[in-house]
Amino acid sequence: MPNDTRVTGFILMGFSAAPELQTVCGLFFLVMYLAVIMSNLLIITVITLDLKLQTPMYFFLKNLSLLDVFLVSIPIPKFIINNLTHNNYISILGCAFQILLMTSFSAGEIFVLTAMSYDRYVAICSPLCYEAIMSSGNCVLMVGVSWATGILFGALYTAGTFSMPFCGSMVIPQFFCDVPSLLRISCSGSLMIIYISLGIGMCLCMSCFYCVMISYFYIISTVLKIPTTRGQSKAFATCIPHLTVFSVFIATACFVYLKPPSDIPSITDRLFSVLYTVLPPALNPVIYSLRNSDVKCSLRRLQQNLCPRDSYYLTVQRFCQCYSASQVTSKCF
């Protein structure tokens, strides 16, 4: 006989049931979370303060880093608190907010990455028209549409998920709320609304994927026509970071959502979810700072402005003078 007890909250599964290991896991994720947040905020700060980086490509990169900050800040702090307090409970409202925000920011990130591929296409294939096409107004419009479409899809996806009643088990076999786990404990006879939401999401993702692939097809065709090897290398250098970030994001998402569902959830499923939520936000600043000479130069300029060499030597000189004066005074007495 089915259990029709309505669920008012859920229990999120961590990586261990032992309190000592939960504490260690919470501290480890706290360090990792702070590193991800600080690196992305550093990219945002550098792009905002450096006038030489006020270009469409870095405008998109700043929004991408901002989305990464929001995306990683939804599941990870809750997971850290759960491990440190040894309490894995989450209310239905909290679960709904997690799905709404994670879906919105994930979709927004895909759309921003698509806009970045179009920016690279215009820069390489139509350089004479670049300033006219990628004007500040058009860039703001593309980013605004990306954010708005992501939020709209997130709202539709969340409404479709929580229009279903939940009954029976309260345990979600993940460290955050996700739709595949919720479908397992749904007692609804019809999943039409969620299937419609999934269909719309797949269409949007495939459209973005095809747009990126078409952009890079024309980019590669144009770059190969450049007569010099140096010109080809310079053109490819502006595209490799974006293509790497896009590939990492799509690959980790496919690992999580396209993997065949297992009857008995394992720790491997939760590890894949960690890759999806933490790996792209962690790698994006590294990829763009290590592979991009403009960002590295801007970081050096910011460091010099905050800690100029002259002030450092002046501080050392004053310290030495004070130390010498104190030695003379002590000898006099």
Automatic annotation (TrEMBL):
**A GO term, aspect molecular function:** olfactory receptor activity
Q: Which UniProt keywords apply?
A: Cell membrane, G-protein coupled receptor, Membrane, Olfaction, Receptor, Sensory transduction, Transducer, Transmembrane, Transmembrane helix
A Gene Ontology biological process in which this protein takes part is:
G protein-coupled receptor signaling pathway
Report the GO terms under cellular component: membrane; plasma membrane
The main place the protein resides is membrane
Question: Transmembrane segments in this chain: where?
Answer: 27-47, 59-77, 89-118, 192-219, 240-258, 270-290
Q: Where in the cell is it found?
A: Cell membrane
Lineage top rank: taxon? Eukaryota
Does the keyword Iron-sulfur belong to this entry?
no
PROSITE patterns noted in UniProt:
G_PROTEIN_RECEP_F1_1 (PS00237), G_PROTEIN_RECEP_F1_2 (PS50262)
Quote the SUPFAM superfamilies the UniProt record gives. Answer: Family A G protein-coupled receptor-like
Query: According to Swiss-Prot or TrEMBL, what is its membrane topology?
Result: Multi-pass membrane protein
Q: Which residues form the G-protein coupled receptors family 1 profile domain?
A: 39-288
Short name of any one Pfam family annotated for the protein: 7tm_4
Role: Odorant receptor.
- What is the similarity comment for this entry? Belongs to the G-protein coupled receptor 1 family.
Protein name per Swiss-Prot or TrEMBL: Olfactory receptor
Q: Which organism is it from?
A: Mus musculus
Q: What is the lineage of its organism?
A: Eukaryota, Metazoa, Chordata, Craniata, Vertebrata
| Recorded name of the encoding gene | Or14a258
